[in-house]
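Service request form, structural biology core

Requester: graduate student, group of Dr. S.
Request type: structure prediction, single chain
Budget code: on file
Notes: please return the result as structure tokens.

Sequence provided:
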Amino acid sequence: MLVWSSAASAQQGKKRTSTLGWDRLPGADTCVATQPLARAVETRLGRKVFVSPAEADVSVEGRIEKKGQGFSATIVIRDGEGKLLGTRSLEKNDASCTNLTDSLVLVIAVMIDPDAAMAPAPPVAPDPPPPNPPPTPAQPPVTRVETVYVQVPGPPVPVKEKPQKPILMFDGAVSGRVTVGTVPDPGLGLSLVGVLVPRGFIGILGRASFVFPRTAPALEAEIAFSHGTLGGGLCPLAHTFGRVFLSACGEGEIGLLLARPSGLPRTVNEARITLAGGLSFGASVTLVGPFTVRAGVTGMLPLIRESFTYTLPTGATAEAFRQLPVTFAGDLGFGVRFP
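Core staff response, request fulfilled:
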């Protein structure tokens, strides 16, 4: 159905120029394209019709889309100020969109120049005759298709090299120490510990410690006990995890337990050798640069536990102190790690 405005009727006698906008919506890809459609309209009108938007009197905009088993087209014409002059809709229930092309050309030509409806359609050049069919061969050729798989090498995959561990790593600290069972009551002292880890080998631990004197009562006097040790061991676990270094070691130590009596008839200092073995666990965290904070715990089984005794006025003896069957120590301090 074609709807004309009064503005369109007023310009029927003028050879108008136009612009053309044409959209093929999804499903209408086989329909006529913009340039062939424009050439067909100009051929129908017998003159050049389509110019740039700045020179055009009117603008024609259209679209075509798939609809059911056929196709549907809508065409709109506007004047230079964008005012609607007319619309036209075409539908064709045909699987071939090319059968709608002639109707589109005629409708667009009439909307631009109504006098074109009275003019006969230009002659259409006949289609060229089909080529002669090729002679039938006496014997059809036999075609054999072989599939050959060729392995094309792809780009080399970069291999991320695993960073090498240092040849030698050291983690050590000076710590305050708290002990249970090595001297009377909880003992306080200092310890110096270091773990050396050669590349490809387990860690090697070394430790020195001293517990300050702690007193035990003896009659109306007292005896002060202090304990110094040297030890070492092997660490099956000695590994760095980011900024944290963890160690688990089996170690042994030899020490000297000193007793200094005060206020007893016999004031001769005495010393006992100690020997113990056990396990220790340590962890250090990097603070800045090589500096670390380190904590550790140690459990020991004394192998030599000699008793310290004193003589009562009755002539009998009494035990002043003897190390516990299991001793414990905890360390907390600051240290360094290289590298």
